[in-house]
Amino acid sequence: MNPLDKLEATSVHILRESYREFKSLVMLWSIGKDSTVLLWLARKAFFGHVPFPLMHVDTHFKIPEMIAYRDRLALELHLDLIVGQNKPALDAKQTFPDGKLSRMACCRSLKSEALKHTLSGEWPRLRMDHDAGRLVEEKHPEPFTGVIVGARADEEGSRSKERYFSARDQQHEWDVGDQPPELWKQYKTDFAPGTHVRIHPLLDWTELNIWEYIERENIPIISLYFDRGEGRRYRSLGCFPCTSPVESTARNVSEIIGELRSGKFADIAERSGREQDKEDGGGLETLRRGGYM
Amino acid sequence: MNEPNEQISIVMAGHVDHGKSTVIGRLLADIGALPKGKLEQVQAMCRRNARPFEYAFLLDALKDEQAQGITIDAARCFFRTEKRHYTLIDAPGHIEFLKNMITGASRAEAALLTIDAKEGVRENSKRHGYMLSMLGLRQLAVLVNKMDLVDYSQEVFDRIRAEYTAFLGRLGIVSVSFIPVSGMQGVNIAARSSATPWYTGPTLLEQIDGFQRREFPHALPFRLPVQDIYKFTEQGDERRIVTGTIETGTIAVGDAVVFQPSGKTSRVASIEYFNGPVKQTAAAGEAPGFTLDTQIYIKPGEWMVRQGEPPLQVGTRFRVNLFWMGRAPMIRDQVYKLKLGALRSPVKLVQVLAVLDATELGTVVDKQQVDRHDVAEVILETPKPVAFDEVSAIEQTGRLVIVDNNEIAGAGIILAGVAARESTLQEHIRAREIAWKSSAISTVERSAAYGHGAKFVVFTSADAAVGEAFARALERNLFALKFKAYYLGMENVTRGLDADLRPDGDLRDTPIRRLGELARILTDSGQIFITSVSDVDDYDLKTLELLNSPHEILTINIGENRFSEFGPSLNLDATADIAQGVGRVCELLRQKHVILEYQI
Fold first, then answer.
1. Measured between CB atoms, which of A47, A177, A186 is closest to B230?
2. Residue of A176, A261, A262 with shortest CB distance to B73
């Protein structure tokens, strides 16, 4: 087996374990390359099916093409799409683009808070109505106890410490020092009521692996990652006020792979275009302890 | 540089403060594997905080770790050499974080272990060596670090090598090299150094490139832990797919297979894989799906093996080398949860044979429980037979973990199956019957007075509602004939008698056991006691039969017969007319002389 086969088999195993152990399971879907690969791996694990809903936390400041792409793909693949949002904060204009919050506080509010309350079912959820072809408000949102997330260990320091199955308490907090052991394909799948678990099937993948797999499997991917004639492209997708495109002329997947292997990005961190990581010494870690993905 | 298409994972272990993170940080810096600006960024941060720069900070990215100066959790870093890609797992050396070290090491194919030249071999140098051996790691390189603090003395190096070699020998680890290094000074990390002219062996970089990749064990017998069975009916998908990750061996379409412990057999009809070419074979490491050419009922947790190859052992007792991480000790007579392959089962500690002091090895402590960080040889027992391999036969399928209070608290390897003279259940029944105080009224007297004999009638069905409907109809019919019949549904037991059960530990075995005890009492009282159960296997029925003895049991299965050995007394079609079905049960009761005559 080559390295991609091994990564695929491990991810598939973890996805099947999640499906077996968690009655109320959801997969976070950000439209980006990692969650697109994650969705593909789910179809691998379940032989073409995706037997759980996908949830997108819409900050309202996502690059608009992402939203259009999301809805199109959901309808095309018949995905059970759920969308959540921090509507009170957006209505009150309590955000970074509105000049009211720091980047970090904005992330915490529009992403972590929105995620927490959408998962628990406390805040309204929109769900794709495939007959109507649009999102409609869900009647009785149920809490989810297992959340599949596309985090990778190579993204930054705190993610490199993650488990495949990672417990979160009622406040969604993460105790980095006291994590469960994982060995011999045995994971922590028993949980006390009130806690929930983050599941990370992509933990062992690198950015390069992701693109190599997209190429090998010929997975459709949003075109924001490619240079469309302006000499710029996105390397990592997020909210437009805080995510800048990189200078690059890579027009397709194989050119991106070339850049990562030996070209201009071979030694530059992927999240270098994400401003919130730079606000204090360990911005992302602080966010993640409080429930960020 | 050509893109290498090979990847290996290596763990870095060793006692706390012996310099693991420093060596890794130095290696990454020296071979140019750090992201651009990372070194400068960490150096700048040290200047800002008025702290001397350390290579370890590159790894210990978490704030907590920088504050305390120790590695809390296993961090992974990725780099490549000319030869291949690496995942280097930096394991923590502090005893408090042993479970993190184990997590890191279990993902590795080879290990590095640092020993501080000045401090020498310490407790966790040995404990980690022991853990690496138990986890199945056979390739180890020992880095005698901080050689700069002992003036690169060959004598110090040789002394540590001799001492640690003797220790490893007892663990069966032989593939070892020792390298004198200084992470701080970069000696023998990526390049050979003039500081150690007496050393002619490989540098750290040469050593890691020299580690062999662990191949998937294709040559061993085929073992598939059945993780799940899928039938997604959407979009007209009719496939019933058995899934799991193949641990060992190979299999092909057309091969005859056996499921253990149920003993059911079938044949592989197809190998399923989404978005890929049609496969005729599958091998260890792969996670495909299988369809079978017969529709047999199997459950997640069984093993699929190939007919003609050595099967797994099946038993209820096994001797295990167990490492305990739980905060609470492992004690006898408490029910834990066992995970072995895809199986989950209740398990009990039967006996502690020896507790080994992992640092001295061989110091036997006389204890009757297993405390945190103990390594113990124990006998475990499951209520139902489970299938397993001895670790000496097949390493991958002789491994288990124990869950206590929702946490993985123990990890073990199975040394051998232990033949039980008689099962705990048989022992219990024998003792119970010896102590049983018989009523002054004999069974014959009761039958004469009631006009019928006593019986325990069990309906089984995949659909609980169907079994219940038949059972209730039988109760009504017998009652109308003035017979003493009583129907008890499992839900009434769950909320009453079984209200005290812990959902995680007791699973299904205790409810079955209590139902059996109840049946013993009610049949003794001369009644016809009727119940219906769903999702039971051969072993559950056998348990009910044993517990009800000396009285007899009558089993009526409705629908697909899912039992392999324990045949039901009667098999009814799930769509059969209930009145007709009840008639057949009554006829059976008449044949068995429980009732003399009946009418529907």
1. A47
2. A176
Inspect the interface and report whether the beta carbons of B287 and A9 lie closer than 8 Å. yes
Domain B223-306 falls in which CATH fold? Elongation Factor Tu (Ef-tu); domain 3 (2.40.30)
Q: Which residues in A lie closer than 8 A to residue B245 (C-beta atoms)?
A: 9, 12-13, 185
Please identify among residues 389-448 of chain B the ones whose CB lies closer than 8 Å to any CB of chain A. Answer: 396, 399, 401, 403, 406-408, 411
Which residues does B111 contact at the CB level (< 8 Å), separation at least 6? Answer: B10, B11, B12, B13, B105, B132, B137, B139, B140, B141
* Fold of the CATH domain B313-417: Elongation Factor Tu (Ef-tu); domain 3 (2.40.30)
Going from N- to C-terminal start, the domains of chain B cover: 7-210, 223-306, 313-417, 437-591
Distance, in angstroms, between A184 CA and closest chain B CA?
7
- Bridge partner residues of A127 (DSSP): A82, A136
Measured between beta carbons, the chain B residues lying within 8 angstroms of A17 are 227
Min distance A90 CA to chain B CA atoms (Å): 32
Q: Hey, what CATH class is A3-205+281-289 in?
A: alpha beta
In the block, tokens 């105080």 appear at: B437
CATH architecture group of domain B7-210: 3-Layer(aba) Sandwich (3.40)
Contact: A285, B63; criterion CB under 8 Å: yes
Query: Could you confirm whether domain B437-591 is CATH 3.40.50.11690?
Result: no
Q: Do A161 and B73 touch (CB under 8 A)?
A: yes
Contacts of residue B277 in chain A, CB cutoff 8 Å? none
Q: Which residues, numbered 218 to 237 in chain B, qualify as contacts with chain A under a Cβ-Cβ cut-off of 8 Å?
A: 227-228, 230, 232, 234, 237
Residues in chain B closer than 8 A to A269 (CB atoms)? 35, 38
- Count A/B contacts: CB-CB distance under 8 Å: 148
User: How many CB atoms neighbour CB B510 within 10 A?
Assistant: 18
Q: Which helix (H) or strand (E) segment is B100 a member of?
A: helix B98-106
pLDDT tens for chain B, 600 residues: list them: 456 778 888 988 887 778 888 888 888 888 887 766 677 777 887 788 877 777 777 765 544 444 344 444 456 677 888 888 888 887 766 666 678 778 878 888 899 999 999 999 887 788 888 888 888 888 899 999 999 999 999 999 999 999 998 888 877 666 678 999 999 898 999 998 889 999 999 999 999 999 988 888 899 999 999 999 999 877 778 889 999 999 999 999 999 999 999 889 999 999 999 988 889 999 999 999 999 999 888 999 999 999 999 999 999 999 998 999 888 999 987 889 999 999 999 999 998 988 876 566 566 667 888 988 888 889 999 988 899 999 889 989 999 999 998 899 999 999 989 887 667 778 888 888 888 888 889 888 998 899 899 999 999 988 888 899 999 999 999 999 889 999 998 888 877 787 777 655 555 567 888 899 999 999 999 999 999 998 788 888 888 988 988 888 999 999 887 777 777 888 888 888 888 889 899 998 888 888 887 776
Task: Give yes or no for a contact between B89 and B75, defined as CB atoms under 8 angstroms apart.
Answer: yes
B417 within 8 A of B315, measured Cβ to Cβ:
yes
> How many whole angstroms separate alpha carbon A61 and alpha carbon A97?
9
Tokens of B261: 């412990």
Question: Which residue's entry shows tokens 């529009």?
Answer: A110
Of B374, B388, B380, the C-alpha closest to B337 is B380
Which among A47, A51, A181 is the nearest to B408, CB-wise?
A: A181
| Dist. CA B411–CA B375, nearest whole Å | 10
The shares of helix, strand and coil residues in chain A, as percent rounded to the nearest 5, are 40, 15, 50
Helix (H) or strand (E) holding B343, with range, is strand B343-356
CA distances from B24 to B10, B29, B89, B198, B335 (A): 11, 9, 9, 24, 43
Model-level ipTM above the cut of 0.90 = no
